[in-house]
Amino acid sequence: MPLSSLSVANVGMHEQGFKYLVHQFSKMQQKALATNREFEQSMHLDVSRNVLSDEAVKSLAELLCKFEGFRSLSMMSVRPRIGRKDTGFIELAKALRENKSLVELDLRDNEISQSSV
Q: How far apart are CA 115 and CA 4, in angstroms?
């Protein structure tokens, strides 16, 4: 049975762990393509309440451009409140134009600046 949900919410994951997770999803997709299998398209990923840098969010955006397996993504409160930029969320917004499978995105409690919206 394929993986349908993965929650790593509130586990203290930082940039390095998140980039590793993104890399593993990329490998899963490549393996599915190499074996001519359809990848499960109803997967839910929850990375809420972890401290993710703009670079980590950019990595996720890159994955969303390539990977059509996520149906929902929860990213509640994933940012440090001090010294933040919105470049990761800007890249995420761009990736949403490319991704056709994601139907639910939760970005609550992230204080995204008005200029980035």
A: 35
Bridge partners (DSSP) of residue 105 are: 73
Higher-pLDDT residue of 63, 35: 63
The secondary element (H helix, E strand) that includes residue 20 is: helix 15-34
pLDDT of residue 113: 67
Q: For the whole model, what pTM was predicted? A: 0.82
| C-alpha closest to that of 51 among 90, 77, 82 | 77
- Residue 90 tokens, joined: 């800007």
Single out the residue of 102, 107, 110 nearest to residue 44, CA to CA: 102
* Residue position matching structure tokens 């762990």: 17
Alpha helix (H) residue ranges in 35-115: 54-66, 87-98
Give phi and psi for 24, each to the nearest 5.
-65, -40
**Neighbour tally for 4: CB within 10 Å:** 11
* In contact, 46 and 8? CB cutoff 8 Å: yes
What gap in Å lies between CA 111 and CA 108, rounded to an integer? 8
Q: What pLDDT, on a 0 to 100 scale, did the predictor assign at position 40? A: 55
